[in-house]
Amino acid sequence: MPPTLLEELEETGATNELIVDAGEYVQPLTSDEIEVLKKSGVHFSEIIKKQIETHVNYELKTEYSKDKYRKRKEAKFAKQMAILEPSLFNVASYLFEKDPGRILGLRVDTLSQIANLANLRPGGRFLVVDTTGGLLVATTLERLGGSGTVLYLSETDTPPEFPIVDLLNLKEKAETLKHLDWAAADEEHVPIRAPIEPPTGEYKSEGQRERYEKRRQALEAQAQLREDLFAGEWDGF
Fold first, then answer.
1. 0.85 exceeded by pTM
2. CA distance 127 to 229
3. Which of 129, 134, 186, 231 counts the most CB atoms within 10 A of its CB?
4. CA nearest 227: which of 216, 219, 215, 236?
5. How would you class 236 by CB atoms within 10 Å of its CB: exposed for 0-12, middle for 13-18, buried for 19 or more?
6. How far is residue 92 from each of residues 110, 133, 172, measured CA to CA in Å?
7. 157: exposed, middle or buried (C-beta count within 10 Å: 0-12, 13-18, 19+)?
8. How do beta strands 177-181 and 149-154 pair?
9. pLDDT per residue over 186-224, tens digit each?
10. Is 178 helix (H, G, I), strand (E, B) or coil?
């Protein structure tokens, strides 16, 4: 709203000096009645209008006081919500403001510098160590755009969970994400391999055969990842 011109202002004799704060007498519309109006779907402007109409001292206020009163009521009842895209910038900014410990206090500008210095780009091959709940992994995946390889080195051999990657809807781009535990990243390490077929060589059921097949595929995938890791030619760490 543009500022009011001096010639548009109305003369008023109100000075606020006659206003007496007498609680319910001044504002007979109770909080319970206001709650009923809110639950019935009445627009906030109508609630404020009704408060003004029932306010005994409203007309005794100066124009400045009236405007201040309206703004205070709007701030209280006009609850507005803005839907933001879950972009990397928005999510990182929100986490830094609301839960900085979760991302080790990593600011958005620092995160962008890390991404630039690492030269993250589509088609690249990058090793990642992440203790920020997946923020670094998510940054790498977004920069690669679904093309390339991201090898995450973790403390355990179980598939990692990255809530931030889920927040950013990076499911398709996450197909480039692989993981190895630190022990497997040591060339001298000899992994303990579970058997990939029954001792008798015969499967008791189709279900058992499928389980052994999945185990074999997982072991082969891990062995291939180790070969890729030790072969080098990674673009960044």
1. no
2. 9
3. 134
4. 219
5. middle
6. 11, 11, 20
7. middle
8. parallel
9. 999 888 888 888 888 888 888 988 988 898 898 898 899
10. strand
